[in-house]
Amino acid sequence: MDITVTKAERSKLLDLNWENLPFGKYFTDHMLEADYENGEWKNVEIKPYQPLVLDPSVAALHYGQSIFEGIKAYKDEQGNAYIFRPYDNFQRFNISADRMQMPSVPEEIFIEGMKQVIAIDKNWIPSKPNHSLYIRPFMFATDQWIGVKPSDTYKFMILLSPTGPYYSAPMRIYVEEHYVRAVKGGIGFAKAAGNYAGALKATAEAKEKGYDQVLWTDAIEHKYVQEIGTMNVVFIVNDKAITPDLNAGTILNGVTRNSVITLLNEMGLTIEERPISIDEIMDAYKAGQLREVFGTGTAATVSPIKELRYKDFVMHFDITKWEVMPSVKARLDDIRSSKVADKYGWMVKI
Predict the structure, then answer these.
(1) pTM
(2) Alpha helix segments (H runs only) across 152-306
(3) Which of 135, 172, 190, 223 has the smallest count of CB within 10 Å of its CB?
């Protein structure tokens, strides 16, 4: 695709401290921007990273038509750049767009635009272990009209951010049974901005208790676990990997989740995607059968959980004795860094 490109006069790389890359704080020299007007996408350009000028009445600020994705790019030992499974995120992005009554973004803008902006800012991809270039495609409504209806105009953008680990230490998770993230028929499966805004209060209260995140339960009975605030969840019970299923449409169809399921199956574990209650989890823990609990997500990658609390019952885990999570994380890391063959076709070369 022929995209207009305006290069930055001076690279911010000169000022970047590679030893301190907190998630989502620093952004590369360039960004992609496109506008949807009169039923078509236009004004597709790559330009220096800069603020936006928006009218105060812009629809997204008032009615929440805003979606996004999270993707990562990696660099191998030879300096080649790869994006991890961007086509899966592209498909999920447009599923979210459909649920939020927004236009789909064509592949030549989403994928080809992403490739081109990463190619320009390739030197921003960290080479350190557990580091990557985080890619944030997003779209929001831009009608200058305070009225409850789908917008007629939208802006699509891609930002890039070099980052280190999202969680630098094993997590402590609080099982939420009061607040609700999603309900059947809602937008839990969409990567909509409002899902995350609605989770902030519950997360803040969990942090006041000393926990890093919440594990959501279903909205009706608060009995069945769903997902953690920033990731899907996997339970290793004996030789089975159990994770909540997607059938209710209340949790995100995670790209990392699906990758981990593939690798766990390859490792010989039995995979069960099904409803799983917090009572079943506690019973497995008491019986000594709950071996490991970990999260999977683009930002979090594969993250161990050392403590899980439900009401006053606390489950502690000695992660130094774990075998499954470290193994699946290592396999995933090796694919992303091109240390082993990518037989699944997950890595897209720039």
Answers:
(1) 0.96
(2) 193-197, 200-208, 255-266, 278-286
(3) 223
